[in-house]
Amino acid sequence: MNFESGVDPSRRNAVSGATGLIQFMPSTARELGTTTDALARMSRAEQLPYVERYLQMHGVKPGANLEQLYMSVLSGSASNTGALWSRGSVQYTQNAGLDTDGNGVITSTEATAKVTSAWQRDRAAVYQTLNVNVGGNADPAAVAAIQQAARSGAMDAFGTVGLEGGGY
């Protein structure tokens, strides 16, 4: 979520119209029974059930790792490996920054390496953003939503990638 939106539920991509914590495309929002405008008005806690449903719809299983989560968000499938997009496609243009070797092909390895690096760098700040409100106290609605998603298995990957110690 931090990599896609900075954990900002109202963040909108000016080019694609993707909105929210995991940058829901307008068509994806419709599949989930909402709109990107409605998602943009939601809090983090209100958006988490949509994130959970999206991940379940796209094959993310309990215990998934960060790479599987990100492949689901980026490409729509937790099991995508190898080449994702080539220069000339809309998806390549929208994600050209992930082509780290500049060969005109974005691979799952390139994409997940970038998100893993960002996670290692930013995870303490993400943990604080997800769990603490401006006043410095745990946000009960956010905590309840995170706990529910963890119980359902959709957010098990947070435990496997470093949000340890949160009491969830």
TrEMBL record:
Against InterPro entries, the record matches this protein to: Lysozyme-like_dom_sf
SUPFAM superfamilies per the UniProt record, alphabetical: Lysozyme-like (SSF53955)
Protein's UniProt name: Transglycosylase SLT domain-containing protein
- Tell me which species this is from: Deinococcus arenicola
